[in-house]
Amino acid sequence: MGKNYIDIENDRGETLRYRKHANGRGLIANGAKVHPTALVEAGAYVEPGVQVAAGAHIGRGVWIEREAVIGPNAQIAPHAHVGCGAAIGPRAKIGIRAFIGAHAHVAGGSLIGDDENIADGEHVATDQRGLRLAA
Q: Edge-to-edge, what's the strand order for the sheet holding 33-34?
């Protein structure tokens, strides 16, 4: 049986160790906390300090940067990018190739469409159709 981890060098020359998540085989960095019931698909990267709650679904090719928080039952579609320190609320849905900026907040139950960009530090709440709600 092959090893259950991989070492990758980042842009700063640091070597980070990632383990393969038992539920989906996505790569989880040391220091990240991913609930056992979360699904992290192969090809996804979860960086150190990230927290992924129960029932979350992280799609293929997703990159979740340091210190981000993914709420219970949130769904992040393939090839999306969640920035450093961002927060995705419970049951939120993030579309394919969506970009969530650093320290941005997506409210629980919100829908962020495919290819949509949320700016750094932006706070977003939508209805179930993806229409933005007043702050």
A: 33-34, 51-52, 69-70, 87-88, 105-106, 123-124
| 8 A C-beta contact, residue 116 and residue 134 | no
Contact 22, 36 (CB under 8 A): yes
What is the CATH code for 5-124?
2.160.10.10
Q: For residue 52, count other CB atoms closer than 10 A to its CB.
A: 29
Q: What is the pTM of this model?
A: 0.91
Summarize pLDDT for 107-118 with one digit per residue, the tens.
999 999 999 999
Domain extent listing, the chain: 5-124
What letter represents residue 7's amino acid?
D
Query: And the tokens for 85?
Result: 């320190």
